[in-house]
Amino acid sequence: MNEPLTVSALVRSVWRDFLRARRALFIFEFLFKLAQGWLIVPAVALVLAAVLAGAGHIAVSNRDILDFLLTPAGLLYAALFGTSAVAMLLFEQAGVMVLAALAGAANPPPLNQTLRATFQRSLGVVRLGAVMLVLLALALVPFVLLAVLTYNVLLTEHDIYFYVKDRPLVFWVAAGIGGLLLLAALAVSAVLYVWWAFALPILLFENRSARAALRASRARVRGVAWRVGFILVGWSAGVLLLGAAAEAVFRLFATAVLATSGERPIIPLLLLLLVQGALVATLSFVFVTGLGLVTRRLYLLRSEQLGLYRPDEGQGAPGQEKPPSPWNWRLAWLSLPLFAVPPLALWTNLSRYTAARPVVQVTARRGHARAAPENTLSSLRRAIASGADYAEVDVQPTADGVIVLLHDRDLKRVAGVSRRLDELSYNEVRKLDVGSWFDPAFAGEPVPMLAEVINLARGRIKLNLDLKFFGPDRRLAAEVARLVREQEFESDCLVTSFDYDALLEVKTNNPRLRTGLIVAHALGDVSRLEVEVLSIRADWLTDDLLRAAYRRGQEVHVWTVNDPSQMARLTKRGVDNIITSDPDLAVQVRNEWANLSETERLVLASRLLLGLDP
Description:
By secondary structure, the protein is of the alpha/beta class. It has helices at 7-54, 63-69, 72-103, 111-118, 122-154, 160-166, 169-195, 199-206, 210-221, 225-259, 266-305, 326-335, 341-354, 377-386, 412-415, 426-430, 450-457, 476-487, 500-509, 543-551, 564-573, 583-594, 598-609, and strands spanning 59-61, 361-365, 390-397, 403-405, 410-411, 417-420, 462-467, 493-497, 514-519, 522-524, 533-537, 555-559, 577-580.
């Protein structure tokens, strides 16, 4: 590699390696993905369940995740999960490299010996993954600490939402520092990736320990690091760009096919699903096997240059290798029908999307925050006028214990006052103008009490009360439960929070109230928690979680959804409630779906299933 190495020469070498091992690589990738989906992922989930049970939890979510991960049990799980994830990546690459090496032998061994050889050094691969993970974490710790320091110095004077929405100068300073830290962290990660590029083949083919392989890899790339990095990163970026282009072409093709397939596009849809599945599988195969073959070939070339390792001279030319055994062929052909199972299963499930179901409900976030100042009586009136079923409002106490509506911990963003709510009495808060920032037409709009909001909502709209905790005072949950009981508003009220313990306290003080856990991230099965509603961030909702919640009789509310296509997809999936900043649009999408015929729903579900716009 100190001599000119053209990309075309490297490509030809990798292509020859692929041709020699193509059949074994196909079978290995299929079996590996099968094991990963059916064995490894469930095993990791079982380990998590055991760790959580040992720590006294069923599940943890949102802010509690960090608290859990800082406990001994959480650190143990993080270490196990991280090592498993890295080890799986290395195992897959190791399989590709070993199969390529064995395929070049004059007399390739049978498939069972080949697969056995792939995992001969499994313990060493696990150790390598653990060492790499620890070293990477240590390298990134300074950047994390600097990011935390930047946040504490620059972004803690006011509520974080003020900085995100108003974006004052200090926000851009913090963002600039954060961007530089991110770029520096990525640069360090890229350098380590290049330094460790040859560690796996060194461990596999030179019988080195994990730490010795990492040291040897760094020494071996010295002098050619830029070239190695350019080739490996270039390959990954090239495949990703190819995948994006293929997806764009497929979407155009699928749109054209469905547009000309009539009202019941059963056969075209099945064919499109098969094409889509084959495309995803092909791109995954190309990325994984290509990266492994390229890395191995670079390792061989560099090692040969340095006189440290000499590749086999007896590799046969493509087409001269020993024919695969009949068992290899049978396994390959028998596996092909399995690619048709997901599309067929998806098509079978389409019938449940077209069946009659309860109409999805709509929640106006912070009242109708696009039509009026958030968390005010005006926004609640606009939410009622939109036809929304719920209005979600944020509640917290003043210094003298009056429950009012406010999202942030202070009033800087909505009233221009740099004071926390828990530092002000209700009489002081009531004098503030929280409407002018939105529009002069709302000048003089006050911060409303929860009791006022309940009186306005009664008989017109239900309320989703989001408990906001910003200080050590934990009386909010009990006070809200008491106030709702006094107002006899339980049947039209839902109390939600990121804090599960607060919801348990609400239930203790008012068993008639329904509670909902707001989930942005979680570890464990949150559907097993004692709540009636799971309020899930839209991009975190999975079909498994949806099914688990329904099995336990829980409602699933999804936030924050403002795109009509996403609203249609969630309606098709059968969620109970869509939380949105645009309730007018959500109500329109909901009503349009409800008025569709079964045939029209089938066509729309088909388009959504293929990732196309409705």
